[in-house]
Amino acid sequence: MYKAIVNDKIFEIESDDSGFVVNGEPQSWDLVKIADGYFHILYQNKSYRAEVIKADAETKMFTFKINGRLYTVTLKDKFDLLLEKMGMHNTASSKVNNVKAPMPGLIIDLKIKVGDAVKPGDSLLILEAMKMENILKSPGEGIVKTVKVKKGDSVEKGQVLVEF
Fold first, then answer.
1. pLDDT at 149
2. What integer pLDDT is reported at residue 84 of this predicted model?
């Protein structure tokens, strides 16, 4: 399942053998690639010209121009939705105040120390939970003020691990 946010409207998208289902309704359309980034779409007997204006696969954000109107689309796949459900979704702000444990576990390695500057995506520590190693990454940028845990500590869900 996917979730698409299009200009602040949310759509749930699933695919099966017959095609796509959007918000519980089966959809049928014809899509033809005209050139790189340009498409022609037939949907409900109407013709649409679509152009990919911007595509950022890392953040899963896309901007399309369809018949002259701009649409911003943010996609979330099943893994993004699961992480969000577990409270591990990426925050929108670039400034980080702290990082909390997304689940109970054991700290098996620290990748940062007080005074380190971190950017979005930098590895902070490794949390072992359910016999799996989870690398917790920085959701934004900041300077490490305090590290509230050490290697070998057991932590609970929601416990503050690092402050910025």
1. 95
2. 77
Contact 20, 30 (CB under 8 A): no
- Whether the CB-CB separation of 102 and 35 falls below 8 Å is answered with no
Task: List the one residue out of 157, 124, 160 whose CA is nearest residue 142.
Answer: 124
pLDDT score at 80: 80
Please, are residues 51 and 45 in contact by the beta-carbon 8 Å criterion?
Answer: no
Given a cut of 70, the residues of the chain with pLDDT beneath it are 88-96
CATH code for the domain in which residue 20 is found: 2.40.128
- Same-domain pairing of 11 and 63: yes
Q: Into how many domains does the chain fold?
A: 2
The predicted structure's pLDDT at residue 56: 87
- β-bridge partners, 38: 35, 51
Tokens of residue 138, six digits:
């920085």
Identify whether residues 106 and 53 lie together within a single domain. no
CA separation for the pair 159, 150 (Å, rounded): 13
What are the tokens at 123?
Answer: 């590895």
Three-state DSSP state, 17 = coil
Range of the domain at 140: 91-163
State CA 38 to chain mean position distance.
Answer: 26
